[in-house]
Structures are given as C-alpha cells and as structure tokens.
Prior knowledge:
Blueprint: H1 2-32, H2 41-49, E1 55-56, E2 64-65, E3 70-72, H3 78-89, H4 95-116, H5 121-132, H6 135-142, H7 145-165, H8 170-181, H9 191-196, H10 202-227, H11 264-273, E4 277-278, E5 285-288, H12 294-297, H13 311-328, H14 347-357, H15 365-387, E6 391-392
Parallel strand pairs: 5-6
Antiparallel strand pairs: 1-3, 2-3, 4-5
Amino acid sequence: MWSSARERFLSHQDAAVGLMLFAGATVFFWLLGNPMQENVHDDLARAFLRGELWVPAGSHWELVRIDDERAWSPFPPVPAITFIPLVLLGIDIQIADLGAVVGAGGVWLGYAILRRLEVPVRTAAWAMVGIGGATYGWIASTSSLWFYAQLLGVVFSLAALHLAIGRRWPYVAGLLLGLAAGSRLPAGLLLPLIAWFYIERRSRLVELGLGLAVIAVPIATYNLVRFGTPFEFGYGLIESFAHPGQPVTSEPYFRDGVVDLGYIPRSIGAMLLQGYEIRLDFPWFWYPVSGVGIPLSAPILLLALRAPWSSLTAVAWLAFVGVMLPNWAHGSWGFWQFGYRFVVDAMAATLVLIGLAYRNRDPDWLLRGTALFGVAATIYAFAAEFWWSARVIPPAISP
C-alpha cells in the first residue's frame, strides 16, 4: 500500500513539475519574443488547400522564383502543414506566439525524457531550465519562419525519442522522426539513436522504417514534382539578398557550394570559440550577428561530455555527429542568432548524454551554475539587441 501511494505521489509530482516547466517556458518565450515576424508557412498552407505547391512571389525574400508571380518555398513542407488546421479554422496567429507554445512543448518533452532516463526530478528540472533558457530559448522566443521549422524538428524528434526510450509504438516513432526531418532535414539523422532502443526485435525496426517512409515518400514526391529530383529542396537556388538576380551561391560564404566539407573547421570554430566583442561604450560586451559559441551561450550542453561510456553513449555521440555534420558542412554557420543555433538540431542526442551523466544524481554546482549562466546570457542577448542595439553586424553580412 505504501509503495503504491509513493508511486502515485511521484507520478503527480512529475506531472506538476512538467506542467510548471511548460507554463514557465511559454511565458518566458512569449515575453522575450518579437511578434512581428514574417511567415511563409501559412502562405504555403493556403496553397496546399488550393491544390497548389507554389506561393506568391512576394511572400518572402528567401524563395525560389518560378516567374514574376510565383515561387517555390525552399523550406521542407511540414511546418506549412501545421498551419493547415489554423487556416481551416480561420485562426490568425503570429508565428512567434505559436513558436512559444511549441517551444515550451519541447521543454516538457525534454524533462519527460530525462525522467525516463532515471534522472531525479530536481536534476531534470534544473537541466531543462538551463537547456530551455539558453540557445534553445533564443530560438523559441524569436521563432522566425526559420526558427519555427527548427523548433518543430526538435519537438518531433524529442517525441520520437520519448516513445523509443519506452520501447513503445515504433511505427509512431518513425512517423514522428519523419515529421522531424520534414521540418528540419538534419533531424532525420537521429535515426541510429531512435533505432537503438528497438534493436532487440527486427520487426520493430521494420515498423520504425515504415513509419519514417510514410512521411519521406510524399516529401520526396513533392520535390520530384517541383525540381525533377526527390533530393532537391531549392536551397542553392534561392536568390541572393545581397546580389539580386544571382543565386545565393554567389555570396562568399557559399563559394564552394551550399554544402562542402571544407566549411567544417570554421563551423566548429564558431560553435566553440566565437566570442563577444569588447567595446568601451555601454553595454561593453557586444555580440556578433552570427552569435557566440556554446561555452558563452549554452555551457550546460558541455555537460554531455560527462556521460559515462556505454553502448548508448556511443550511439548518442554517433547521432550527435551525424546531425551536426550537414550543419558543420553548411556554408553559413548561422546568422541573426545569439548562440550557435545549429546545435539545437541535436538536442535529442544531447539530452540522452546529459541524462546518462546525471542518472540517479542530485543537481550539483556545475549543473546549477551552467543552467543559470545560460539563462542570464539569453536575457542579456535580448536586452542587448532590442533595448541597447548592441549587436555587431560586420560588413561581410552583406557582401
């Protein structure tokens, strides 16, 4: 009797902490957010409802023009699909407001995942305050059309991981991973981590693959109809903002193409080493438009290095590197950001590593300290940009 009462108490405690994290994150993201964000996903949702695949050419500047009136969206289609119910119901919502709720859902899922990995309640709560309030929090608060797609990729991948850890519903986990990749392509490379939890039964791996295929095949067909190949989304065909009439590859960041292995060293350097610019005028610490590295924006992520070695640790690191490789090989290491936002794509793998590092451990000073530092850094970043205009925009941003 006492054992069942204790289990009920812990279950209710978990639900209460998860709800508080969700509510707190929603308010935090909403208060910091900028509601005046452009959105092309709702235009594409309306196009889908009309039986069309193109959007008006004036919907946004980062499109692939077909002619003077029509353009293809280079974004994977799942973010647009999430707007279809809203369009049908006549609900007009700012993408930043929607992103705040979606982002808070990711914080709740992250907490639930850590608890499944046997991380104590207080430790899991501290970890999600630190992760949710750092670079991930910047993305969820800003929630531009780029960041909303990235948020969806994270949230769908976390939902897939949550099911996988419980060895439940592999077909649904595959669907969710497909939706993650259909929102943000690198998220699909989390497949080894999701598959690891089902590896004991081949039939479950088949179900996982079938679920993934249900999403992947229509998206491949979508690209085939638009560009004649299932693998082309149109990133390299976007018109350069700085050089109208020329493709984005005319910009110096993409001199070797949109993706090239030669870009990897500079991307890793930006991820780990990029810092503030110190000036004599207030607020003294100015940050570049391409953001600052993980140690100065989201140091809690470095606690993944404390994960003890195991087969799951190896698979999680493999998934982390797999997700990050296309990001590191991308010509841009991210602009209009505070932290190195591409690392958020690998949040599922990072959570597993942090969960392994803090399994059955109370929160220590390092966890608390890095969590508070990341939240404080994010609040400073918003103040620096929106209150003090202390963001450094180098001439190279408009080559």
